[in-house]
Amino acid sequence: MPSFPEIMHRTLFRTLSLLSPAGQGLILRRYFDWRHRVPDPWKLATDSYEQQKYRSTLKHLPARPYRRIIEVGCAEGVFTHTLATTYPDAEIIGVDVSARALARARQRVPEDGRVRFIQADILTHRPDRSFDLVFCSETLYYLGRHERLRRASAQLSALLEPDGVLVAVHPWPEATRLHHYLDSHAALSRLTEQVYQAPPRPFAVAVYGTKSV
């Protein structure tokens, strides 16, 4: 059960989603720049829970080579670094709305032609290529209400190659609501979902593929 501060936090972002996508994106950029006024505000690099979540996420990937990977909501690049190490031959793009977070991500994982970072948000980003592996972790609840979640699901689906894999990781049981929009998208088919109930914060890892035409 979410704590009262978490509930209020989510309520705030649902209210922001009443704005236009551009207006919502502007406030989210300012909010996350403010959060990243100190390095690694969520302790992604040092918290054992976060590290376990990364390991659990990778465990659910279909075993295959991945050539192009995109991480939506990469923050300061902690998981991006893990991806770059796990898939040394893949092109990897990290996307985040916060310029301050991306500056630290570039220090953690220097851009070298194989790894690069882009400032953008999922609601308005228009990529110039598709990907065979897409990650979206701890991101969708910031988008708020249902219309924005439908739009985000369409955007995530559009990132995929025809045989691509999408991985969504969000708190449980809120993941039921958030992943519902991915489940409902005509182009996506859920392959697996695993719920991790262990404290301090249960989460779900859902893996999607593209539907055959």
Automatic annotation (TrEMBL):
What's in the keyword line of the UniProt record? Methyltransferase, Transferase
Q: Which Gene3D superfamilies match?
A: Vaccinia Virus protein VP39 (3.40.50.150)
Q: Name one GO molecular function term.
A: methyltransferase activity
Q: Which Pfam families match?
A: NodS (PF05401)
- Provide a GO biological process annotation: methylation
Is the keyword Transferase in the record? Answer: yes
User: Could you identify this protein by its name?
Assistant: Class I SAM-dependent methyltransferase
- Native species of this protein? Nonomuraea marmarensis
* Organism ancestry: Bacteria, Bacillati, Actinomycetota, Actinomycetes, Streptosporangiales
